[in-house]
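JOB MANIFEST
job_type = single_chain_structure
chain_count = 1
residues = 206
[input]
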Amino acid sequence: MENLVDNSELRAEGNLMNIWSLRVLQKVKVFLWRAARGCLPTKHRLQTRSVHVCDRCVQCESSYENDWYVFFGCAKLEEVRSAADLWHIIQDNLETADDFVALFFKLLESLHHQQLFDFVMTLWCIWKRRNNKLWNDVETQPRILVNMAHDVLFQWQQVRVHQRRREHGEYHNSVMTDHRQKEWTKPVVGEVKCNVDATIFKEQGC
């Protein structure tokens, strides 16, 4: 069939299985696939589709917004890269990469384990941060963004662990053990116990 029909233009650059085989949330994989296939609605891409929008970056408003600039070029990413401790890994590949997709797949193949998880989750959170600024005019602080990347993946991994335990009949015992460990106990005589809680305010981005 390939000899009869020239489908070279339809072939995707890079190995897409490196995306679908990642042990991350499905919505993160879909996002990564869209990024690899050039489907993210950046300002530059919208203009190439005859959508009349300003081409300035949503975050810094100082340069035109394409895939490369959103994830690697924007000046406001410096604090994110510093908080995520990823810049020293990415920097060595920036000058040799031909474009965003080439760099994207090169990092997918070269990073391993936790570094790989941190990289893809940070990309996903950068895009969410960009959209939150665009649609809600809320700018998420870099440290909060990095913590969100870690927390979302950790919570998903915990759910997967409980699912596997449930499948193997270990879930009930695990829940009972966790319940006993987290059960509140009153302080001993002469001591005071302080219970602390936290709340996330979406509107304030914290």
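[summary]
The first helix runs from residue 17 to 20.
Residues 60 and 183 are 47 Å apart (CA to CA).
exit_status = 0
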